[in-house]
Amino acid sequence: MTEPATPRRTPLDATHRELGAAMTDFAGWEMPLRYGSEREEHRAVREHVGLFDLSHMGEITVHGPAAGELLDHALVGHISAVAPGRARYTMVCDADGGILDDLIVYRTAGDTFLVVANAANAQVVLDALRERAAGFDAEVRDDREAYALLAVQGPRAVELLSGLTGVELAAVKYYAGVPGTVAGVSAMIARTGYTGEDGFELFVAPQDAPALWTALMDARVTGPEGTPAGPVPCGLSCRDTLRLEAGMPLYGHELTRQTSPFEAGLGRVVRFDKPGDFVGRAALEAAARRAEAEPPRRLVGLVCDGRRVPRAGHPVVNAEGTVVGEVTSGAPSPTLGRPIAMAYVDAAHAEPAPADASGVAVDVRGTRESCAVVALPFYRRQR
């Protein structure tokens, strides 16, 4: 019998353990789930600033004269049109239109792109890019060992980083990545995020991650009570509730090989107007036509009346008890103070409506929890 692989550890593993983090195996990595109260970590990001270790993400460099054309062929987006220093959210799909992963692609130079994949799918994405690179003058390089990734998220993120870098952060646009130094450490400073808040991701050499984490934790900004405070270390648990409130999809939940971008409400990332063919084009054109004519199901938000929390896989039922959908993600919302969920439901039940009028409920282990159907996201930050 094959022994299970030992989970990998990030360059900050010792730091997390010194902080008393509860660790968990996530996508083959030992990662901090929480350091104390996940609710307090969540609120720190919404109200102040939080610090995450995201070094489990998968980095792949695509370089060469035809790197842009390769990515146009391999992915659904028009990547060759991305300007140097900018980034784009996109997807890699199978020939049948199913989603293999959602990605962020940074153009770090004229003929160099950094593809950032989800940890669980990094090898799948790497294999797909290498297979699809045949005939293109471009190299696909596995750079997962070349980077550690820290994320600073929250309304005080700019204030926190401004004291540690000479980069003019106000000039760094959303979905951009620029070179610079942070606390003396060379980094690519990106402004994307997965929490619904403003913030930055710092791509650094693995050996520099511990010193940078310490410098960020030692920095002080105006705290919630008006007194100086540092960032709060945050784990995967609050990252999940933050992205759920922000209506951001998670691969393996809202996005799967059995789901097209159009079913997920993300058809905008598919660029049929780009030059040349791309993998999955014919299937995605058919999916787009179905979605426009009569979508069989739609991704919606649910806000529950009661206290029971919907979880992935729980059935969504109508007033007669007929199953009309399935929950993909659910959790208590610290911001709303109510259980929330994302779910795929039949189109006939997808229009926003209060709980007493929607006729929709989630079957939570045999108990029906009435839900309001709402448009996503549940939470949108004030800019």
From TrEMBL:
It holds the Pfam family GCV_T. Its EC number is 2.1.2.10. Keywords: Aminotransferase, Methyltransferase, Transferase. SUPFAM superfamilies: Aminomethyltransferase beta-barrel domain (SSF101790), Folate-binding domain (SSF103025). Residues 297-379 form the Aminomethyltransferase C-terminal domain. It catalyses: N(6)-[(R)-S(8)-aminomethyldihydrolipoyl]-L-lysyl-[protein] + (6S)-5,6,7,8-tetrahydrofolate = N(6)-[(R)-dihydrolipoyl]-L-lysyl-[protein] + (6R)-5,10-methylene-5,6,7,8-tetrahydrofolate + NH4(+). The keyword Thylakoid does not apply. It comes from the Bacteria. One of its GO terms (cellular component) is cytosol. One of its GO terms (biological process) is methylation. Substrate binds at E201. InterPro entries: GcvT, GcvT/YgfZ/DmdA, GcvT/YgfZ_C, GcvT_bac, GcvT_C, GCVT_N, TrmE/GcvT-like. PANTHER family: AMINOMETHYLTRANSFERASE, AMINOMETHYLTRANSFERASE, MITOCHONDRIAL. Belongs to the GcvT family. HAMAP family: GcvT. The glycine cleavage system is composed of four proteins: P, T, L and H. This is Aminomethyltransferase. It comes from Streptomyces alkaliphilus.
